[in-house]
Design goal:
Layout (H helix, E strand, L loop, with lengths): L6 E4 L7 H11 L3 E5 L12 H13 L3 E6 L10 H20 L4 E4 L11 H19 L3 E5 L5 H9 L6 E5 L1 H8 L3 H7 L4 E6 L1 E4 L5 H5 L9 H10 L3 E4 L8 H10 L6 E3 L7 H13 L3
Parallel strand pairs: 1-2, 1-10, 2-3, 3-4, 4-5, 5-6, 6-7, 7-10
Antiparallel strand pairs: 8-9
Length: about 290
């Protein structure tokens, strides 16, 4: 097996300011970067047309591409009908920013898809994702749901219920291993028609946990990136680990991606650890071992 996929880095994982992080990503050997674009200087509301053009030119000057933006608005995803109008509007603006910066992908969490397909929450999420998907499709772009909160089979059923593939998948194998215990290898084959971006991450599940306690749901504590990182660092339910030290079977995972013809980015995300840059550097070498 010889991988041909470009390697990306979630630049925020380097814990540097944006431009320094972009330079360091290039020095580490990345082909592209994913950038968090919800708040701060990357909030679409804070970026003028000139600033967007300047950032895109700067990324180009480094010989990098933007693999995706991260537009995850946390909280209860799109489960709360009362909050959805504002969240949908902001998500659209993040996608506009993505297109201006030269990528067609915004990754996000939509909240846990309920098992009951006739439930009000399921229908609320369907309506929100239908609107987002139609908007993305009109721009030849994608909102990419991150795997992990539910099984791949259940997520596929939800995606199949939408009228377009404008809402697709950002495949994260470690989330599946750590939370639902689902098999990422089989998940690749199940979601093959929807995978437009991937994360390369590893981890281990320590005990069975209700995904609603991790990712939040109506009636549960809302999801926050800080709480996810705390659990991934030293929690009782799961741990995120450097590549090759967890339970993701990368030989089989990469082969599955190859089997389905996926040629997009393998983007390294490292949300925890005392020296994420060193872990990311090792992860790049780990992936290059398959090239």
């Amino acid at each position: 097996m010889t991988l041909v996929n470009p390697i990306g880095i979630m630049v925020d994982s380097l814990r540097l300011d944006l431009r320094e992080g972009l330079r360091r990503a290039k020095e580490l050997g990345a082909d592209g970067v994913q950038i968090y674009a919800v708040s701060g200087e990357m909030d679409p509301a804070n970026m003028t047309a000139a600033q967007r053009e300047e950032l895109r030119s700067y990324v180009d000057s480094l010989g990098l591409k933007i693999s995706a933006l991260c537009g995850d608005l946390a909280g209860h995803g799109f489960q709360d009908a009362a909050a959805n109008a504002a969240k949908i509007e902001k998500s659209k603006r993040i996608l506009d920013l993505a297109v201006d910066l030269g990528t067609s992908i915004v990754t996000t969490h939509i909240g846990i898809v309920p098992q009951e397909e006739n439930s009000p929450v399921y229908e609320t999420m369907q309506r929100a994702c239908e609107e987002l998907g139609m908007y993305a499709k009109s721009m030849n772009a994608y909102f990419a749901i991150e795997t992990g909160p539910e099984t791949a089979a259940h997520l596929k059923r939800f995606l199949d219920s939408l009228s377009t593939n404008g809402v697709s998948v950002n495949f994260d194998p470690a989330n599946m291993v750590m939370v639902t215990g689902d098999d990422p290898v089989q998940g690749v084959y199940q979601l093959k028609d929807y995978i437009v971006h991937t994360h390369v991450k590893d981890g281990v599940r320590l005990r069975v946990v209700d995904p609603r306690e991790v990712y939040g749901a109506l009636g549960y504590e809302p999801m926050s990136h800080e709480r996810l990182a705390e659990e991934a660092q030293a929690g009782a339910s799961y741990r995120e680990l450097p590549l090759g030290e967890g339970r993701v079977k990368f030989d089989d995972y990469f082969k599955a991606l190859q089997d389905i013809g996926y040629t997009g980015y393998l983007t390294i995300e490292r949300e925890v650890g005392n020296n994420p840059e060193a872990d990311i550097a090792k992860a790049i070498q780990f992936i290059k071992g398959y090239k």
